[in-house]
Amino acid sequence: MYASGTAPALGSGYEPIQLTRVGYTTIIVQAREFACLLFHHLDGSLMIEIDDRGMVSILRMSRGKGNALNLELVEALGKALDDLESSSTRAGVITGSGNIFSAGVDLPALVDGGATYVQRLLPLIQRGFERLATFPKPLVAAINGHAIAGGAVLMLTCDQRLLARGTARIGLTELQVGVRFPGWGLEIVRFATPPQHLSTLLYTGRTWLPDEALARGLVDELVEPERLLDRACEVAEGLGSIPPQAFKATKLALRRPMIEAAQRQSALSDAAVIEQWCAPETLQSVARFAEKAIKRAK
Q1: What is the rounded CA–CA span in Å between residue 259 and residue 129?
Q2: Residues 6+ apart with CB under 8 A from 259
Q3: Residue 9 lies in a domain
Q4: How many domains does one find in the chain?
Q5: Shortest CA distance to 136 belongs to which of 267, 243, 54?
Q6: Which region, left, alpha or beta, applies to residue 66 given φ > 0 means left and ψ of -120 to 50 means alpha?
Q7: Which of the 8 DSSP states describes residue 9?
Q8: Judging by beta carbons within 10 Å of its beta carbon (0-12, 13-18, 19+), is residue 142 exposed, middle or buried?
Q9: Contact 160, 239 (CB under 8 A)
Q10: Which of 26-30, 67-71, 94-98, 112-116 is predicted least confidently?
Q11: What is the per-residue DSSP string for 241-282?
Q12: Which of these, 78, 110, 246, 270, lies nearest to 177 by C-alpha position?
């Protein structure tokens, strides 16, 4: 896997092709044995790497900063999903980089941007969750590390969830941050979490180690870290071998109650949710939580 600045020079068997999109530069590195797409924001920061392995595409969030969800990363993920849907590959694996899958919403960016930023970000995240939850091809989460708050919701949108053994923590901390759940986020969590664990997960904001996350039904399988991607690709390939129309129809039928509930919940409450996130007292609560999290990380 090569970042744009380290890709092999022409003449060594690779041919970089650069395509400009609105707000993004896409660099495709092609070789006989693999193809890798690199989604960059125009400020040069790498957001998503796509590595094709036969009938499976790996989408790796590579933003850094804990793969925290900001405008650029959510937009890049949406564009990567568009490419995956239109490609010939049959399934996708979503993973992170380093020891973090995703830390959820970028709270410092939220505080710095204020209400104007929230009004842009929250609807975009909602559309991203809807896109993931209704994606017609199989999606497997290869959870390489912590998946917190919005990062956990992203994980829960996937059809199968594999977590690396170790010290990663999974949890939903929205209420501890001081924000309400948007409609799609809440209904995805309700759909994917066993009902006997849902209230504890939402109300307490506790984060769970791998064995606990498995016991509570948040993930489907634990895998040794060095085997995580290979195993996720095996699972994705198995799901991808199902005739596409049969898989798509079954997935949407299975998720229809969740989809309809999310649509209703969004119509009823999303305006109020955005208003609550934008309120000065909410942004102050977010700032305090972010400050504490930064201190703990030092």
Answers
A1: 11
A2: 133, 134, 252
A3: no
A4: 1
A5: 243
A6: left
A7: P
A8: buried
A9: yes
A10: 26-30
A11: TS-HHHHHHHHHHHHHHHHHHHHHHHHHHHHHHHHHHHSHHH
A12: 110
38 is a domain residue: no
Beta bridge partner(s), residue 163: 143, 222
Contact in structure between 270 and 184 (CB atoms under 8 Å): no
Q: What is the extent of the structural domain holding 179?
A: 45-297
pLDDT in tens, 221-248: 999 999 999 999 999 999 999 999 999 9
pLDDT band of residue 45 (cuts 50, 70, 90) is: low
Best CA proximity match to 133, nearest among 244, 243, 237, 254: 254
Let me know if residue 40 belongs to a domain. Answer: no
The CATH number linked to 188 is 3.90.226.10
Strand order in the sheet with 100-102: 100-102, 146-148, 170-171, 207-208
Q: Which amino acid is at 239?
A: L
Measured between alpha carbons, how far is 258 from 189 in angstroms, rounded to an integer? 10
Q: What are phi and psi of 15, to 5 degrees?
A: -130, 100
Residue 186 lies in a domain: yes
With b for 16 or more beta-carbon neighbours within 10 A and e for fewer, the 204-233 pattern comes to: ebebbebeebbebbbbeebbeeeebbebbb
What dihedral angle (degrees, nearest 10) is formed by the CA atoms of 157, 268, 72, 95?
-10
Could you give the residue numbers annotated as active site?
A: 174
**pTM, to two decimals:** 0.85
**35-41 sheet: strands from edge to edge:** 15-21, 24-30, 35-41, 46-53, 56-61, 91-95, 139-143, 160-164, 221-223
